[in-house]
Amino acid sequence: MASDEFCEHIRSIHNLKSAARAECEECVKTGDTWVHLRTCQSCGATLCCDSSLNRHASRHAAISGHPVVCSSEPGERWLYCFPDQTMANY
Ligand SMILES: [Zn+2]
Ligand SMILES: [Zn+2]
Ligand SMILES: [Zn+2]
Question: Which ligand is nearest to the CA of 5?
Answer without folding.
Answer: 1
